[in-house]
Write a sequence for this structure.
């Protein structure tokens, strides 16, 4: 079943996919940011696939080139199969939003923005979701110290 | 009870009567934020039975409570809520910092967790443990009762540490 799906996706989406990585039964497609909407629409609308979005996360590789990776986690209940889409971006580069295709992407993208500072353009409501709104930093970036920056978050008066 | 300037037999006796009554009916405000709250609930069950000490009335309303049991990890975002609820409790009031996270930040040595609630709350008793056993929480309650019985302000500021 998995091979069939893989083959089908390769045929349909071959123009958009840069690389396919299969590691310990995890299937990852490396794609370009501008093709994200087309690919995820296809994953959602194809009646044999019926993928839905499960999670969006980012990885800070802390390298000079391709510093961040944004990973989209899709799962098909119909086929019991999971695939990952991966976008490699530079520091301060932004990514198109997925809210037009999956409404649930709204809060996932807010989380990625809050933790890594990656901006999603055309996002309807890109605010912080975990940290206080006046907080200046993005805690999951590698340059952020583990214990935080002193006095960057307010405490109540004693 | 400042009825007279000099403390007479009458006022001191009334004082000790009031603090005796107060110590045996401490109503906790259960500030259960995370897993320590489960042990706090266990201390109210028949096996440990916090009502032996008159503190079974867990009021989820700060206005009716005089003892705050902060049970759980306090994040910076939550700290404002904890302080606000503490401010709503009527005087006199006491605070138990239950568990490692509440007392020192515990295993959450990270940017989002307050490293000890004494940074923004006057804590009376610290209880060690992750989470503490219910009997240790009862021990803390007894320490608070001793403080209430003594009644004077000096002993109120004294901090008590209970080992695991």
């Amino acid at each position: 079943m998995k091979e069939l799906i893989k083959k089908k996706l390769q045929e349909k989406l071959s123009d958009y996919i840069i690389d396919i990585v299969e590691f310990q039964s995890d299937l990852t497609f490396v794609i370009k940011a501008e093709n994200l909407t087309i690919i995820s629409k296809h994953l959602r609308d194809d009646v044999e696939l019926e993928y839905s979005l499960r999670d969006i996360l980012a990885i800070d590789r802390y390298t000079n080139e391709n510093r961040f990776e944004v990973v989209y986690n899709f799962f098909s209940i119909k086929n019991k199969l999971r695939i990952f889409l991966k976008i490699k971006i530079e520091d301060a580069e932004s990514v198109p939003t997925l809210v037009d295709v999956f409404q649930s992407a709204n809060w996932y993208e807010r989380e990625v923005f809050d933790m890594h500072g990656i901006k999603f353009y055309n996002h309807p409501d890109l605010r912080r979701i975990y940290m206080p709104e006046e907080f200046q930093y993005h805690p999951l970036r590698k340059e952020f110290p583990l214990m935080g920056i002193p006095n960057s978050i307010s405490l109540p008066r004693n | 009870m400042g009825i007279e300037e000099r403390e007479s037999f009458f006022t001191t006796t009334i004082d000790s009567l009031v603090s005796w009554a107060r110590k045996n009916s401490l109503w906790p405000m259960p500030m259960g934020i995370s897993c320590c709250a489960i042990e706090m609930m266990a201390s109210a069950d028949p096996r440990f039975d916090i009502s032996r000490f008159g503190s079974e009335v867990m009021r989820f309303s700060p206005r009716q409570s005089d003892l705050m049991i902060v049970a759980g990890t306090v994040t910076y975002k939550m700290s404002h809520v904890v302080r606000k609820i503490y401010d709503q409790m009527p005087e006199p009031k006491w605070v138990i910092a239950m568990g490692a996270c509440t007392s020192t930040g515990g295993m959450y040595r990270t940017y989002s967790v307050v490293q000890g609630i004494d940074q923004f709350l006057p804590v009376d008793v610290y209880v060690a443990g992750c989470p503490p056993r219910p009997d240790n929480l009862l021990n803390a309650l007894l320490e608070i009762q001793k403080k209430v019985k003594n009644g004077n302000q000096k002993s109120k500021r004294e901090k008590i540490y209970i080992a695991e």
User: Anything to note?
Assistant: Residues 2-13 of chain A form the longest helix (12 residues). The radius of gyration of chain A is 17 Å.
